[in-house]
Every structure is written in C-alpha cells, then in structure tokens.
Amino acid sequence: MTLPYGELAARYGTPLYVYDADSMRQTYLRLARAMAGFAEVYYSIKANPNPEVARVFVELGAGLEVASGGEFDAARAAGCAPSRILFAGPGKGADELEHTIRAGAGEIHLESFEEIEHVARIGRAAGRRVPVAIRINPSAAALGGAMRMGGKPAPFGFDEEILETVLSAVDSHDALDLAGIHLFAGTQILDAAVLLNQWRHAMEIAGRLGRPLRTIDLGGGLGIPYFAGEAALDLEALQRGLSSLGRHGARVIIEPGRYLTAEAGVYLMAVRAVKRSRGTRFIVTDGGMHHHLAASGNLGQVIKRDYPIVSTRLDAGPCSPAVVAGPLCTPLDTLGRQTMLPEVREGDLLAVLKSGAYGLTASPTGFLSHPTPAEVLVSGGRDRLIRARGATSAGADERYGTRWDSLSGTGIR
Ligand SMILES: Cc1ncc(COP(=O)(O)O)c(C=O)c1O
Hints:
This protein is an alpha/beta fold. It contains 10 helices and 21 strands. It has helices at residues 5-12, 21-35, 51-58, 69-77, 94-102, 113-126, 163-171, 192-209, 235-242, 258-261, and strands at residues 16-20, 39-41, 43-44, 64-66, 85-87, 107-110, 130-137, 147-148, 158-159, 176-183, 186-187, 215-217, 251-254, 265-277, 280-285, 309-311, 320-325, 334-341, 349-352, 374-379, 382-387. Strand 20 (374-379) and strand 21 form a beta hairpin.
C-alpha cells in the first residue's frame, strides 16, 4: 500500500500505526469469494482489536471471533450483532462468560470441563439454552503451521481422543445447546494443502460425531508472506480443494485474523540517531518492541527474521545493511538485523510493513513507560484517528471504553 506517510506522521506524530481500510476490504472480499458456497468468513479480532478495524469487516457482513470479555466489547463497539460473535479461549473467566452469554453471544466455544459447568449454570440462571461448540485439539493428522496449536499437548480445547466423554458432559446439561465444533491447528500457514488437510480432518470428526451440527468452525491460520523466499497462500488452490471436503449440512466458518489485516498495516517510526559501533551501522528509532513485539522476533518466532522495513524517502540513494534498534534499553529491542536501507538521518521516517496484525495488541506496551502509539485508519483517501496516543499503558483499559471495574471479580484493573 502507498499512503502519504510523511503527511500522516506530521499530523499524528510518531511512532504511529496506519491501517489501509481499502486494502482490508479487498482482501476480505477476495477471500470471501474464494470461500463462496463453502464457508463464511469471520474475522478473529485478536489480530487487531481496534473496533474501527473490526468495523471494516463487520460492514462487509463478517461475524467476529473474540477471546475475552474485552474483545467482546470491542466487537460490540464495532457494530457487530452479539449473535454474530463467537467466544473462544482456553481460560474464560466466569465473569466474562456471564457478560457475553447475557449479552447474547452467538456461540461459546467450550474448552474445559470447568467451562461446561460454568456455562450450564449461567444458562440455567438466565433461563435459556446457551449455544455452544466444542473446541477440539486435533490429533497429529491435522498438523501444520508455524505456531502449532493442535496435534500435541495443548491447553486449547479438548483432545480429540476424549470427544465422547466431552459430548456426554455437554449432553448432561439441558442449558447447553450443542451447535457445533471448532478446530484450529496453527497460525501462519502458507501452504493450501496443509490447510485443506486440517479442514478435511475437521470434517471427518464432524462425520464421526453422528449427529447433525449447525456450525463447523475451521479456525483461522491463513498465512501471509513476511520474509524473503516466502510465497503467498495460493487461494485458487485452496478454492479448488474445497469441493472434496463436504459440509455435513452445517454452516462452515473460517475465522482468520492475520490474513485479513497484516498486509494493510504499517508501523511508522522516526529515526532518532544513526551511529556506528565497531563497524556496524545502527539506526535508532522512536519505535520498537514495546509497540511491535512481533517485528522484533520475540512473539513466538523460533528463528528471528526481519520484517520488511523501508525508508519513506523518495530520493533515497543506494542501500546498505543496518541494524534497526528501538529506544528500549535491551538488545531484544531490535526490529531489523540485516535491513537494507539508504543513508538516513535524525527525523527521517522508516516504515515497518505488514504490521496490521499482532502489532500493538500483542506488544508489551508497559515496558519502559513510553506513550502508546496512535492508530490511524485511511479509507477512500481520508485518514481518521482511531486511537489517540496514550500517556502510558496505564490508560490501556480505556482503549475500548471497557469499564472492567464495573464487572466485579475480574481481577483486571
Ligand atoms: C481460536 C482462534 N481463532 C483464530 C485465530 C486467528 O489466527 P490467525 O491470525 O492465524 O488467522 C486464533 C489465533 O490464535 C485463534 O486462537
């Protein structure tokens, strides 16, 4: 995406997240077209929970998948009907369950026996049957993805091997209305065959259950190419493979996060200093891992590889390698290790590309008490502040207008 970064930085200051709504729309519609007749595309809000980002997808008809009471509130703030919100996550609090069930969440995805009891109790007290799905940790047959969340011991969902026991537990409660199943085996998958294999496995489980299901949620995990040598997910190959999967008469859902937002976001930083240390060029910026942990390689990456970082100068000369370091007093705060950049000086802008997913939301904003960055959404050529710069992370719980202190016992302040 090409946006007027200089103007935006001048208007809103740096560091700054900039998201391109038009690019998100195009990506969503392309994916929705590829899935047409097979699955509905929800948006997993954890990738970027800014309500104005989520609103882009809600306005195109997407439902949302959330992983906390706070994300549920962000989804509501984005204009999503409660019935279009799925709530999954391995350790849902009783208060979060109460909050989301009473608000009419579309489905609660059960991930422990404790949750089964809590949801049933809340449903009984509210005098209604709660639509639920069983989240299944698939067997090794469904492996794949950079960060695997299935096929091995995991806190997510119930092991496929104990499904019968889980079904009996769910069936023992009249207040639980079993709508479906949910599988999610890994994130950042670039190989269509791996995704199809996982989805096929989910369909086989659905078939084995021997009862009608209303929904089959295949999770997210669709990857984007970040690094040299990676190729984009082949949507056409994915689409070609769908016809052989079947749907067991259910509504099939996929809930990608990264795929829908990553490439539509940029993290803009200003250069604060350029120095040489023992022959290495260091470019020190005002942005760093406190706002963008993933770009520093510290968000679960096994091998640290550099996100694409570019200079926004149009008149930039030849490039040479540089280390791009943030302002924190730790060597972990390195965003580029071998980044090819032109000569830059104090005040120049650098843009970390592919930063629309797992950026601010997945970063330790409290570390070293720098202000949280502003977020701007550009749509149809117009830019709009969608989150103001914060004083420190202490203001974090005001971000979505969530008043957690009104929910007793959450332990969240
Ligand atoms: C249940 C669930 N759904 C969807 C997602 C989104 O994954 P991705 O961003 O890889 O599409 C995640 C990510 O952790 C998840 O846990």
